[in-house]
Amino acid sequence: MTANSGAPLIEMRHIDKAFGPVRALAGVDFHLGAGEILGLVGDNSAGKSTLMKVLTGAYRRDGGEILVAGEPVDFASPRDSRERGIEMIYQDFALCGNMDVGQNIFLGRWPRRLGLFVDRNRMYGDAARVLDRLKVDVNSVHAKVESLSGGRQQSVAIARALSFEPKVVIFDEPTANLSVMATAKLLETMAELKRQGVSQVIISHRLTDIFEVGDRVMVLKRGVNAGERLIKATTEKDVLELIVAGAA
Ligand SMILES: Nc1ncnc2c1ncn2[C@@H]1O[C@H](COP(=O)(O)OP(=O)(O)O)[C@@H](O)[C@H]1O
Ligand SMILES: [Mg+2]
């Protein structure tokens, strides 16, 4: 697969989604190229998380089309989109605090021996390899997740996502609760994933982060497209104006 073979890797056309009387998304268009890092920005309640949850199938859309590599898809749940290589890392990480790192990475699919016993060697060995690919030093694959810092818990959530070998990774507000060090580490991870050809979406209020790793930024405002820019051709000030005022 090449980046410029025509169709974008992901395309969403004219997406509508309402929650009761709230129109969260009204005719939103979205696209993502192979190996691209897209910053998705906008004020609180603009519809950023909803748009990505519609993509993964966590939410059903009311209208519009979704295409993966040019082919229409209809994901009923994140399990379906996972099969097409799409992973989303939620703001709260969605981990089990009282289980250890290895158990969390392979939650719901612990490797078995003779179809019966959990193959602990394989599980912790594979967990260590995924963390290594991420260049993350979660001290021990046996540590309970609740004993780890926010940054390390996030690494576990990312490791779990990467263990599915995704083509697309969506990060929802990943740096909101991270230390400066952990944020730098995450941005490094994103750059490394890009080198490996993984497409990524980062939802963030921190334009600095998006300008550091992003290729393009897309702005939502109250559920509609409010403009997009190539990072190399814009400024934080310009993007802030789009967030506040929308495209002219
Ligand atoms: N599960 C839900 N039930 C009801 N309303 C929701 C739900 N998810 C999102 N919304 C509403 O949809 C709008 C967009 O929310 P969201 O996508 O979370 O915005 P953002 O991520 O940009 O802050 C908001 O008005 C929010 O309250
Ligand atoms: Mg959100």
Please tally the β strands and state the result: 12
- Report the CATH topology name of one domain: Rossmann fold
Assign the CATH superfamily of one domain: P-loop containing nucleotide triphosphate hydrolases
Beta-strand portion reads 25-35%
Rg over CA atoms, rounded to whole Å, is: 18 Å
Name every ligand kind in the structure: adenosine-5'-diphosphate, magnesium ion
H and E order: EEEHEEHEHEEHHEHEHEEH
Total number of helical segments?
Answer: 8
Considering DSSP H and I runs of 4 or more, what fraction of the residues is helical? 25-40%
Spans where pLDDT lies below 50 across 5 or more residues: none
- Name the overall outline: globular
Strand order in space, largest sheet:
6-9-10-3-11-12
Just give the CATH class of one domain. Alpha Beta
Biggest β-sheet: count, sense, barrel? 6 strands, mixed
User: What is the first-to-last residue Cα distance?
Assistant: 36 Å
> Which architecture of one domain per CATH?
3-Layer(aba) Sandwich
Task: Describe, in plain words, how this protein is organized in 3D.
The protein is an alpha/beta fold and about 250 residues long. The chain has a domain at about 10-85 and about 165-245: P-loop containing nucleotide triphosphate hydrolases (Rossmann fold, 3-Layer(aba) Sandwich), CATH 3.40.50. The protein is built from 8 helices and 12 strands. The protein has helices at about 50-55, 80-85, 100-105, 120-135, 150-160, 180-195, 205-215, 235-245; strands spanning about 10-20, 20-30, 35-40, 65-70, 70, 85-90, 110-115, 115-120, 170, 200-205, 215-220, 225-230. The strands form 3 sheets. The chain has a 6-stranded mixed beta sheet with strand order 6-9-10-3-11-12, sandwiched between helices. It has a 4-stranded antiparallel beta sheet with strand order 2-1-4-5, covered by helices on one side. The structure holds adenosine-5'-diphosphate and magnesium ion. Magnesium ion binds next to helix 1.
